[in-house]
Design brief:
- The structure is a single chain.
- This protein is an alpha+beta fold.
- The chain folds into 2 domains: 176 residues, Regulatory protein AraC (Jelly Rolls), CATH 2.60.120.280; 113 residues, Arc Repressor Mutant, subunit A (Orthogonal Bundle), CATH 1.10.10.60.
- The strands form 2 sheets. It has a 5-stranded antiparallel beta sheet. The chain has a 3-stranded antiparallel beta sheet with strand order 4-3-6, with no helix packed on it.
- Strand 3 and strand 4 form a beta hairpin.
- Helix 2 packs across helix 8 and helix 3 packs antiparallel against helix 4.
- The longest helix is centred in the middle third of the chain and has 20 residues.
- This is AraC family transcriptional regulator N-terminal domain-containing protein.
- Keywords: DNA-binding, Transcription, Transcription regulation.
- It holds the Pfam family HTH_18.
Length: 298
């Protein structure tokens, strides 16, 4: 199984409206380097099998090509344009819409330690990556089902679930997990995350936070870890340290005061935990924060 087989399958099943007989699966084919009509796309994964696509999001422009994919955790229109497209070699790709209820279900069922810990406080809403062999193989098996109506209804949900699992456990899994926060079962966790972000300087007890959002302490702790891949206290600690790093970029000499401002009463504890997260104590880590000037560029 490879991109070559995926291209053959996509070329055979591509339609003008991109729809397929499999729910949430769209197939695209474009034979010219022209921008498609604007549309509101949902939370999704888009995999390019042949050709390339260029899109603009905010102030940035991104290119992704055959064997690469995009994941989006927000429903937003993206300005895009196909590149390297000709009638002889069209751009081919598939799009799988990602449902919050399905993301939430996998997150809640995942065993501890099976999903990588998040390193970033706020994962990007749009992320790009090279597709793993396992992801491409699963995509091939899913599109094959368009030729197998007898198997489609039973096997398509299983393969879509496999693809979603590959995405959740990928390097950009944090972006995909954000989709699950829209599910009602996880909305209390989203509320807790917002509370911690707004009150990151203040100490709190997990039990009190669980009561605030209307969950039992055990259910809150279990579901919080499923969503964020860390504990509430560790989550607050990461926010404190990332905020400290931003403050140190502006005031690199004021380490003790900044540690206090983000909620640390002990300078030694602040330095120890900062080093554990960033690999160097704050006094050394800030050495590279000096702003660049025109003279620095030679």
């Amino acid at each position: 199984m490879s991109l070559d087989e995926l291209c053959v399958l996509l070329a055979r099943h591509a339609r003008d409206d991109a729809a397929t007989a499999i729910e949430d699966l769209l197939i695209g084919r474009e034979e010219a380097d022209v921008p498609p009509p604007p549309s509101m796309a949902g939370t999704r994964m888009t995999l390019i099998a042949q050709g390339a696509k260029r899109l603009a999001y905010g102030e940035h422009v991104y290119d992704y090509r055959a064997g690469q994919y995009l994941v989006a955790s927000i429903a937003t229109p993206l300005t895009c344009r196909f590149t390297d497209a000709t009638p002889q070699r069209p751009v081919l790709g598939l799009c799988l819409l990602l449902r919050s209820v399905e993301v939430a279900e996998l997150m809640l069922q995942a065993a501890p330690g099976t999903v990588p810990d998040d390193n970033d406080i706020a994962p990007p809403a749009i992320a790009f990556s090279d597709a793993s062999g396992e992801l491409i193989e699963a995509a091939v098996r899913l599109v094959r089902l368009l030729d197998r109506p007898r198997d489609r209804d039973i096997l398509a949900p299983l393969i879509k679930r496999e693809i979603l699992w590959r995405l959740i456990t990928s390097e950009h899994g944090a972006t995909v997990r954000q989709i699950g926060l829209a599910d009602p079962r996880l909305s209390p966790i989203a509320k807790a995350v917002q509370w911690i972000r707004q009150n990151y300087r203040e100490p709190f007890q997990v039990q009190h936070l669980a009561e605030l959002i209307g969950m039992s302490p055990s259910a809150f702790y279990r579901n919080f870890r499923a969503v964020t891949r860390t504990t509430p206290i560790q989550y607050q600690k990461k926010i404190r340290l990332h905020e400290a790093r931003l403050l140190l970029a502006a005031n690199p000499k004021d380490v003790a005061t900044i540690g206090y401002l983000v909620g640390y009463d002990s300078p030694s504890q602040f330095s120890r935990e900062y080093r554990r997260l960033f690999g160097a104590p704050p006094s050394q880590d800030t050495s590279g924060f000096a702003p660049r000037t025109s003279d620095d560029n030679g």
